[in-house]
Structure formats: C-alpha cells, structure tokens
Amino acid sequence: MHATIIQEFKKHIQLTVEEEALITASFRYKKVRRNQVLVQPPDIALYEHFVISGCLVEYYLDDNGTQHTLSFAPQGWWMTDLRSFLMKQESRYFVETVEDSELLIVTREQYDELLRKIPLLNNYFRILYQNAIIGQEERLLNVLSTKVDERYLRFLKKYPQLENRLPQYLIASYLGVTPEFFSRVKSKISR
Amino acid sequence: MHATIIQEFKKHIQLTVEEEALITASFRYKKVRRNQVLVQPPDIALYEHFVISGCLVEYYLDDNGTQHTLSFAPQGWWMTDLRSFLMKQESRYFVETVEDSELLIVTREQYDELLRKIPLLNNYFRILYQNAIIGQEERLLNVLSTKVDERYLRFLKKYPQLENRLPQYLIASYLGVTPEFFSRVKSKISR
DNA sequence: GCATTTTCTTAAACTAGATCAATTTTCTTT
DNA sequence: AAAGAAAATTGATCTAGTTTAAGAAAATGC
After folding, report:
1. Is cis: bond before A41, omega within 30 of 0?
2. B66, B133, B141: residue with CB nearest A132
3. Which of A58, A146, B19, B191 has the fewest C-beta atoms lying within 10 Å of its C-beta?
4. Distance, CA of A148 to C1' of D6, in Å
C-alpha cells in the first residue's frame, strides 16, 4: 500500500529500512470516491495528499462562481493548498477528487517530524519543489504567450492519459477559457 | 559584501562561523551595469544569481519577437533559468539586469558542494522554493481570473518599490498585455 | 547641448474569447 | 430501461485586448 510512496522518495534519496517504516507509519491510507471535497476554503488544509491512484484537482472559485483550475494531480503526484498547509492559514483553493482515488495523507505535524527525523527528506522536497517551479513557469508562459488551440495541443502532449479521464469543462478551465469556447476550439481542430 | 546573503540564509536556518566562511568563499561578487544579458538562450545558465542591489528580469522571447516577462528579482531575490541551471540543459529564458546591479553568483558545482557540505541548506532552499510555488500559483491565478486593470492594481500593491524603476513596457509584458493597451489602462485608471 | 534612439500615447480597425440562451448528448440513478 | 441531471454543442451578440500606424515625450549617446 505504501510501496508507491517509498519508491517515489527513492527516486531522489536513499532510505534505511527504519526510515521506510517511519514513513509508512506516518502516512495514512485513504480511499475516496470521485467528486469529494478534500480541502474546502476557508478551512485550513489539514493534509498533504500523495496520489496512489485516481486524480485530484486544485481550483479557485472566484466571486462570479467561475472555477479556475490550477493543476491536476494524477498518480505519483502531491497535492494540497500548499500555503494553507504550510502556514496554517485559511485555504483559498479547493482540492477535490475527479475520480475514485487512493491517497496517502500526512498532517503538518507528521510532515515536520518526518523532516526532522529524516533530514534527507529536505533534499527530496527541495528537488520536488524545484521541478514544480519549472513546470509552473512553463504553464504561466503558455497562458501568456499562446492561443487556446496551441495550449490544448500542448496539454494533450503533456497529459495524454488525462484527456479521457477529465470532464471537458475542467480542461477548459485549466486552459483558461469557457467550456463553450473550448468546445468550438476542439471541433475546429478535429476538422 | 556577503553580509546580505548570510542574513538571507539565517532567515530560515542557523549557520556556524565556518559555514558562513564557506558560503562567502563560494559566492562571487559581481557588479553589472543595466541592460546586460546574464543568461542568453540557448546558452546553459552557468550561475544562480542572488541580488544584493538593483533588479533582474527573466523573460521569454517568442517566435514573433514578443517578450513575455516571467518574473522580476529585486534586492534579496534569487534568479536564473532554473531548469537550465539545474539540469544543464539549454536555457529558454533570458535573464537581464534592468538596473545597475550588485550580484552574488554561484556555479552549479559550487552550489552542489555547498548543499553537500552544509546539509541544512537543503532546508533553506526547500522553504525558498515552497514560497516561490505559492507566489507563482497566485500569479497564474491572477492571469487566469482577472482583467488587466485589476492585475495592475495588485502589481502595484505587491511591488510598490518597482513601479518607478521599471520601463512601462516591461510591466505590460509582466501583466500579459501589449504596451499600447497597458498605456490605455493606466490613463483610464488615473481618471 | 543637439541628435538619435527608445519609450509612451492615441486612434481606428480587427479578433480571440466571453456571455447568454436554447438544444442535444451523455452520464447517473433508480 | 426510463427519468432526471449534468455536460457538451451551436448560434447570436458583445467586449477585452491586439494590431498597425503615426506622433509626442523621454532617455541616451556623442
């Protein structure tokens, strides 16, 4: 059950058997069915979620009720409202399951304790966050510099697995356009 | 000269005198006048830059020759083409001075060695990158969910010092609009 | 201090994408 | 399998932001 997350850590750092046991003991397994809210603003995000299977989405709900998708977390990804989780401030972003999902979750206290007991984890998370920054820069740039049709094609290339698992309005929201306009873009592209 | 960067590290971690000396020895002081290119695609980004004074900008130049600003780095900030610096791949973003600037720079080898010799630095950089992610999420959200006038007002609030130090076309590029349109927005707001 | 380049402004025509509204298709639930 | 709800399509109209162009203002170099 915890094998995937141990594998994930081992991508970047080495772990002793004791450390693996400690990690296993700290992460709680949680099975959640689709469309469940995991973080609901303004509640404080209590957990960092690691996705074993399924998919999560993080989005902002603006004053008009429009949903703006920040990111998706398929298998092997982490997700939470990071600012809320780390600083124990009110969350601003929803986190939800878009499919039945299996998660490993950890509280802030457990997270701190793990970093204290296994200092190498700082190394793992440093690298994880570095990569997240690089990915985010690219995403921002896409929004700033390209039209929707181009953005959609890049999305398809980057997440070929996700295309058929996500409702279309969520992809539209991720690309930063209305479902109506996205529908037109798709039909134009397919012709 | 290296006092600022030591102070910066000490915001998040403790350092011994020896460690401070090691850091001082690893970062090279560099004075650069304005409008100098520090990273030029597709050259590999050789340094991570810490800004003592002045200001840097990171931007992407698209195929039409349009400049898309990803971020600014005033005093106390770090900047480089992170992907290029870390993975030794071809850079994609320009890094330039927008003012005469004083920098402390470190090569990839020195950076790795520092992290090896002072493991706590992993902790510092983990926190630094966490905060960068939180900031970037916010920026992405602004672009996705608000109109330019609103974005501009938020920019003013967030970087009151920068407003008068940057040419207007750079701010426009940061906000994701043309200089022409930005000029209109400004005059509309001031009335 | 004058000339040249760069930046900023204003205006008119244009386009990517939004909004509103109605219809069809697909997914859920029983 | 039927009914209801949610998601996707299509069309008409509207708007935020672009493009092109030309002139005015600032900044820079000599």
Report:
1. no
2. B133
3. B191
4. 25
Closest in B129, B141, B143 to A133, CB measured: B129
B188 touches strand D (CB under 7 A): no
CATH 3.40.50.920 is held by the domain A3-145: no
Summary count for chain B: helices (H), strands (E): 8, 8
A14 CB neighbours strand D below 7 A: no
* A58 within 8 A of A94, measured Cβ to Cβ: yes
What is the C-alpha separation between B170 and A179, in angstroms, rounded?
A: 32
- Per residue in A142-164, pLDDT (tens digit) is 999 999 999 999 999 989 899 99
Residues of chain A above pLDDT 90, percent: 94
Return the CATH number of B3-132, one of 2.60.40.2470, 3.30.465.10, 3.20.20.70, 2.60.120.10. Answer: 2.60.120.10
Percent of chain B with pLDDT over 70: 100
